[in-house]
Design goal:
By secondary structure, the chain is an alpha+beta fold. It has 2 domains: about 1-140, no CATH class; about 155-275, Aminopeptidase (3-Layer(aba) Sandwich), CATH 3.40.630. About 40% of the residues lie in helices and about 15% in strands. The chain contains 11 helices and 7 strands. The strands form 2 sheets. A 5-stranded mixed beta sheet has the order 3-4-5-6-7, sandwiched between helices. Helix 3 (about 55-70) crosses helix 4 (about 85-100) and helix 8 packs across helix 9. The N and C termini lie far apart (about 85 Å).
């Protein structure tokens, strides 16, 4: 490993391809010494897993390996030290953007270019987060969205409108629902007329790229809660944190501190990882029964 100075005027370490392979192997096998788990090593790990895996899978893997690494070197994962979900998620987001901008680079070129980039400062997250948010116990355990400026410009969360019907119809197909535009229009109308249903859209540069539907649920023998009925982000816009923005928006404006539940198909493992990264825990597995009653004979 060769120490050099990057544009941030501090000494950094560059890695050869062999050293990168070795770092990842020892990191995964919990054989990486604490002294080698440097900021530059963190950056290499972020690039490596974003390069080889989709976002949710990369986060799941890195979370597990960092937690295990900390345990192997005697660093406890607690409310005040060890693994930090928000910082990990943030660096993976930045790594993904960097990879997308340099799609002609090899994995080894990407690692060292990232270390040399303007994003390499360990203080870079504080351009997006206040210290109070970033270093909170909540941020250590779940991925929080930046509170100073968004990771992507031109993003807005707003209530759904009748004029969103066409965009919602198209987005619904990404969830596997082939709905007629008239049906979607009637659903939006019913939600807007309800005091217990809420729908919001995420727009990027004024274009609808995602939506979420949530509703208040009452139970005779249990406490009320808010349930997320559906959420989808346009495939080309995933990885920008829009899903997190929508979920957090529901938590803050609809649930307002009350319990939130989401039901997720057991086959949708990527979605499971997404909700876990937001602090949701798996509570139970259910079997759903459906029936359309026949009209009684006249």
């Amino acid at each position: 490993m060769k120490p050099r100075f990057n544009t941030l005027d501090h000494e950094v370490v560059h890695y050869s391809p062999t050293e990168i392979d070795s770092l990842i192997e020892r990191f995964e096998q919990q054989q990486l010494p604490r002294v080698e788990w440097t900021h530059e090593a963190h950056l290499v790990v972020a690039i490596w897993y974003c390069y080889h895996h989709p976002d949710a899978k990369a986060l799941d893997l890195v979370r597990g390996f960092i937690t295990n690494h900390n345990t192997s070197v005697g660093t406890p994962n607690t409310d005040t030290e060890g693994y930090h979900e928000t910082i990990t998620w943030f660096w993976l987001q930045i790594a993904r953007k960097f990879i997308d901008k340099h799609d002609d680079f090899s994995i080894y070129e990407l690692c060292n270019a990232f270390i040399d980039s303007k994003y390499a400062s360990s203080k870079y997250p504080l351009e997006y987060y206040t210290e109070g948010v970033l270093f909170s116990v909540k941020a250590r355990h779940e991925a929080l969205m930046p509170d100073q400026k968004p990771l992507s410009k031109g993003i807005l969360i707003r209530p759904i409108e009748p004029g969103d019907t066409g965009a919602i119809t198209v987005l619904s197909k990404e969830l596997g629902y082939e709905l007629q535009i008239g049906k979607v229009a009637s659903h939006i109308e019913a939600i807007l007329a309800s005091d217990h249903h809420y729908a919001f859209v995420a727009t990027r540069n004024s274009r609808v790229v995602g939506f979420i539907h949530a509703f208040e649920t009452l139970r005779l023998i249990s406490s009320p809660f808010v349930e997320i009925g559906s959420i989808v982000i346009r495939e080309s816009e995933r990885g920008l944190g829009l899903g997190r923005l929508l979920v957090h928006y529901v938590e803050e404006t609809v649930a307002k501190g009350n319990h939130v539940r989401v039901r997720c198909n057991t086959k949708r493992e990527r979605a499971h990882g997404f909700y876990r990264s937001l602090g949701y825990t798996e509570n139970k597995v259910q079997t759903v029964f459906d029936k359309t009653p026949q009209s009684p004979p006249s």
